[in-house]
Each structure stands twice: as C-alpha cells, then as structure tokens.
Amino acid sequence: MSASFEEFKIVFTGPMGAGKTTAIAAISDTEPVRTEVANTDRLGHAKEFTTVGIDFGRITLDDGHIARLYGTPGQSRFRLIWDVVGRNAAGIVVLVDASQAGAVVQMTQFVDAFRQIAPSAALVVGIGRSTEPGAIGSEKFAAHLEERGIVVPVLSVDVRLREDVQLLLQTLLCDIEAGQYAGAAA
Amino acid sequence: MAEDAQGDRLWIGAHSAAMLPTTLAALRSGTFRPGVFVPTHEAPAAACLSVPRQDVAWYVGYHAAPELAPWLNAGQAFRLRRWPDFGRIRSHAHLLRLAAALGHRAWTPHALSETTGLPASEVHRFLSAASLAGTLTCVEQVSSIPAPRPEAANSSPWTQWLGGLRRRLGLAFA
Q1: What is the mean pLDDT of chain A?
Q2: Could you say which of B100, B152, B170 has the minimum Cβ distance to residue A178?
Q3: Residue A51 DSSP one-character state
Q4: Chain A partners within 8 Å of B13 (Cβ)
Q5: How many angstroms separate the most distant Cα atoms in chain A?
Q6: A179 interaction partners in chain B (CB closer than 8 Å)
Q7: Does the structure show a pLDDT above 60 at B126?
Q8: Span B27-56, mean pLDDT?
Q9: Do A73 and A83 meet the contact criterion of CB atoms below 8 Å apart?
C-alpha cells in the first residue's frame, strides 16, 4: 500500500450533513480543527454550518506515532480538496444520510471518487439515519455496490455515538489487515 | 410465524420479520430456537420491531451449530458477495476479521481459520450465517487459490502498528 506509518491518515468523506465532523470529534484526542462557515446552500441541506476546507483531528499512539483524521467538504465543487486529502490515505470512511432521497447516488459518487483517488485504501460506508421514517435501508446501498462488483463494508451507524465510530474504525483496520493477509498469501 | 419452546414468536414477511424486543435479544444471543412454523394472517403485536429478514437469517445461521451448514462443503472455498450489516447485527468484533478476509479473496474454511487464528467453529458459524443470509458465494476452483502464509501477515509492521492504534482506541481484540 502507498500509505505509510509516518503519515497514516484516515479520511472521512460524504455529502453535506452526513456527520463527518461529528465522527472525527467522537474519536480525536484533541478538539478537531474545523473549517465550518455559514451554509449558503440551504437547498442542498438545511444545516446551519458546513465544512468548506478540511476538518482535522488526530490520535497519538503510545509510541508517539500519529494517526491523522481528515474530514473533507461535502460538496463536489471542492473536489480539488478531496484529491489532496485522499491521496495516500490508509482508509476512507464514506458517510451518507439514508433519509436523503438521493443517498444511493451520493454514496456512489463518493465511493467512485475515492476509489480513484486512493485505490489501495480500505474503504467503509457508514449509513446514518437509517431508522428514520422513509429512510433507505442499508441493504439497498449494499445491493447497489454488489451489482457493480464492489465488496466493501456497509454499516448502519449513528456517528453521534462513539461506539459506532469505533465500529467503523475497527472495520477499516480489519480491512487494512485483510489486505495484508491476501497479499501474504498471493 | 415461527415459535420456540418458550412461546416467543416472530412473524416472517417477504423482506422483514417482526418480533418483540425480548425476542430479538433472544435471537441475537442464540437462545431463540424456532421450532414450529405456522402460516398465519395474524398481525404482529403493536410493540413489535421490524427487522430485515437477512438479519434473522444471520442470527439463525450463526447460532445453529459449530459445524458448517450441511449444504456447504469444507473442501470448497468461499468469499463474500457483500458484507453483513454489522452496524445492525452487532456481532462479536472478531467476526469483522473474518468478513474482511472473505471480502478480499476466497478462502477454504481451514485456511481462513489458520490465517486469522480464529477457531474452526467460529469460521464455520460465520460461513453458515453468511450463506443463510445470502451474502456468501462459493468458488469452485480451490486449486487456484494460493495457500496462506499467516506468519508473514502476523509479523507485518502494519499489523503491529494497527495493534497500537487499536489499543489506543480501546478496540484491542480479547
């Protein structure tokens, strides 16, 4: 893989309002650096603030190494930032809001973009608000990826809960390791 | 409708099943053992939860037995077509390792157990559950699948580094 210990990074991405900033805050050692401004795209999402640059958090290991956590802006007009942040990432967490009508299309857009930007990175999809009335079930997201031959974890989560963000990370770490198993056996 | 010896019931529909929260807890823990299936027009109680049928299949398959399901062959290799939704299923953390391995390539049950270091019974339960839930696919040409070299993976600097991150996050495997 092209990721390294010296710059081990996990990227949280997905459309506006999916919970990227919240997820980073749930596990970062320090208060994340945020680049939120007033949301002027109220048609796209009703939230008051949105990320326009990157969010940044970190986890310092006992041996002093650092895992860096980045959150991307959700709007595709910031694609340039996706490229910069995603390059050489060890793991990608795509978050989507299942209560949004276009959530499957949105997921596909982010999965495709980041599989291109960081082709060797492990990738996990977190489906939020899946229990709200009218929300799309996670099996629809998984089936859509399966139809395209993409086998990645698709998990229903609430990123306001630290244990759910931990589940996403544990899954990502297992997937990174499994890439090592597969590589060792090949 | 399925009912067990304790009188717990679940209503099975085309895409989902309905059951009381206590029955769901029993299903997750493996103490709900459906013994009787009855066609019915009776509606589930208002307090029932709706659970995707795939999840019910997973729980039943996982808790059925520590051996491979009778329709699976230990000499064949398997891989996942899609991951189970562990966000809903809330299974043991070590099952994530099996899912991740099976998401990358096909494994025979024996090779998967050797490589992950997990007991054969857990591998069998996982494969049975994934098969019943419709997320598993069988790969016929076992001879084309390279043998595992678990020592190479386990001693990898990456594995050690990820272990440090897990410890820091309180995610270390027991």
Answers
A1: 88
A2: B100
A3: E
A4: none
A5: 51
A6: 104
A7: yes
A8: 86
A9: no
Token pair of B114 as six digits:
């050797």
Do A5 and B161 lie within an 8 Å CB cutoff?
yes
- Tens of pLDDT, residue by residue over A126-183, are 999 988 888 999 999 999 999 999 999 999 999 999 999 999 999 999 999 898 777 6
pLDDT at residue A153, as a whole number: 97
A174 and B156 within 8 Å at the Cβ level: the answer is no
Å between A100 CA and nearest CA of chain B: 19
The torsion defined by the Cα of A36, A41, A43 and A49, in degrees rounded to 10, comes to: 20
Is the alpha carbon torsion for B124, B157, B163, B169 positive or negative? Answer: negative
List the B49-52 sheet strands across, edge first: B36-37, B2-3, B9-12, B16-19, B49-52
**pLDDT value, residue A148:** 95
From the CB of residue A152, how many other CB atoms can be counted at a distance below 10 Å?
20
pLDDT in tens, B63-106: 999 999 999 999 999 999 999 999 999 878 889 999 999 999 99
Say yes or no for a CB contact (<8 Å) between B153 and A170: no
